[in-house]
Amino acid sequence: MTDAEIRAVALATLLSIAPEVEADGLRGDRPLRSQVDLDSMDWLNFLLGLHEKLKVDIPEADYARLVTLDDVVSYLQKKLGGA
Amino acid sequence: MIEFKLPSLGADMDEGTLLEWKVGVGDTVKKGQVVAIVDTTKAAVDVESWQEGRVHQLIAEIGQKMPVGTVMATLLEAGEIVPARVGADDTATVANEAAPKPRRMISPAARKHAEEKGVDLDRIEGTGPHGAVTLEDVENAAAARIAPSAEKPAERSADRTADMRKTIAAAMSRSKREIPHYYVAEDIPFARALAWLQATNAQRSMAERLLPAALLLKAVATALKRYPELNGYWRQENDGVFVPVSAINLGVAISLRQGGLIAPALLHAESKPMTLLMQELTDLVKRTRAGSLRSSEMNEATITVTNLGDQGSQAVFGVITPPQVALVGFGRVAERPWAENGELKVLPVVTASLSADHRVSDGHRGALFLRELNDLLQRPEELDQ
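ok -> structure tokens follow
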């Protein structure tokens, strides 16, 4: 998958949890949870949604590395065996 | 004859609008069965029956707004027989179990139209000769069902948000007017709890992982067993009396994405293992935000817990939801300097607070409750047993 495809999956997952979010207004290099009001349950569901769609396991120890949308895309790309 | 009344769907709800009957005349109703969907200012709620019987009459009509306590339907108890009334409309009642349902008069055009529109003919009262259901009756029923959605979704959402704000305002104003609150707080080291959660979650699939919220809720439920004066209701009769409740039903404050909040209950939290509590919390949050709650979840909370989570403030001092007498609040878990045995170190810490009703308990007992909570959270593995 390309980075753009992974980003699209991440955004679709995010919108299923926070439908009021305007995806065009999100900055990929800013902390996601400061741009979108996601509580810990939302965040868990976001990661669970990524896991289900991409078949990628995300250990809890890695949660702290996933701060921005760019972090999420980059992390998933590595997990999927990409660049 | 059992009168099925509109129950209170939370202290802040004094009326509701019937959206849908989930049972028909003649149906058998079991305890806990959802019999109707009622709209409130906060959510559409599945209203359960806590009595068993057979539906005799559906009195409330779709779209009818009614105050709490209104008789919505009548049920026949097992073996109960209602004498047939001369001239009574047999189509609206069930005389007894053995009696065959009388044949209804429905015009062919009405029947065909009902099929096309998906209208349940059993729910329509005929206005034709001898109660016959006419084409016009079916059209009216179909229109009544469609009418609410003709309103623009954005307008409906804005109305609901405004109504919810008013409801919250009324309940919280009443609370601050009537309940003499006192507040106590305790900083709780959370390192052991987090280490236990991490070790536990490392053994679990993603879908089964626990959030700190589940541990905090379990700790509250466990601690409350020793502090029954915090779990129950203040009743106004006889100049006011506290009624303790043995079940610990934790009202969980859940914020809605469009604004406002609802605090439905996790029922019997004291008797549930943490994994089940986590599953039920996940389900409750999901259904709350989808607007699909049950009446028992709306009116049986015995205490409220508000957890600001990892995006929240350091501490929260909440307003008690009447007729409850206490509210437990948790701020975000964050690393803070911590002095212990003459040494200064950095630890994850959570501030727990208690807002409680001074008519029922005192600050000393409140402080002991928080101390108990602290002790329990230093032994998280025991909470999972």
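Chain B touches chain A at residues 198, 201-202, 206-207, 209, 211-213, 255, 257-258, 281-282, 285, 309-311 (CB under 8 Å).
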